[in-house]
Amino acid sequence: MTETTAPPETDLVLTERRGGVLVLTLNRPDRFNSWNEELERRYYALLDEAEADPEVRAVVVTGAGRGFCSGADMDDLQGLIESGDFGAMVGREPPRHRPLLFGKPLVAAINGAAAGLGLVEALYCDIRFATPKAKLTASFSRIGLIGEYGVAWLLPRLVGRSRALDILLSSRVILGEEALRLGLVDRIVAPELLLDEAVAYAEELATSCSPAAMRVIKDQLLRTEDLTFAEAIEDGDRLMLEALNGADFKEGIASYLDGRPPAFSGLAIR
Length: 270
Known about the structure:
globular; six-stranded mixed beta sheet; 270 residues; four-stranded mixed beta sheet; alpha/beta; 10 helices
């Protein structure tokens, strides 16, 4: 009987640099890239490294083989049931929503199934590209679970309350074109072009947009979800004054007047 061994942790997420864009590929294709602790550690560690690297301006995440991420590894969930030790599923460090806090553009290229936790991870990304036959499903209600890790907060803001309830209550499979209509994804691309199109979008952000401005915009959108309109205006005024005094604003105006591409600095490590 042959024994199979798990791939080294470094192989669980493949990395590829394309200019200022880092491509991360979830790499458990024999399990449709199902999520486990080792994959999570590696993915989040690579996000930390990308955040600290001023040469990385944007990240694209996709899946190896025929799936994006099929959700939590079922063997791991069965092990949890047998042990009864569910405490590790909450209060995690880093938190499961760590990708949502990533300070640079994070683009998902959904090449197949994104189910359960796999869907949540896709929703943590800023922009989602998908193929017409990509299959998105919450899947939680069909295994006796609820909307996990902030998805009950995210989904209504993306698609509206009733659509979010449909997605979470039914756990039905939503194909790419319907996902686009609902607002779950932002672009539909032919499978053979998916990764290149997602990277091209990320490259445009990497070469033409201020990294500092993009980080502030991401923080701003998260923070203003809980503000009144008046508070959001006040917050925006404060941030605008900071931006007006920043080096990227001066470079943005100078490059426009000179008719050349901007030379924005990379983000300092924070």
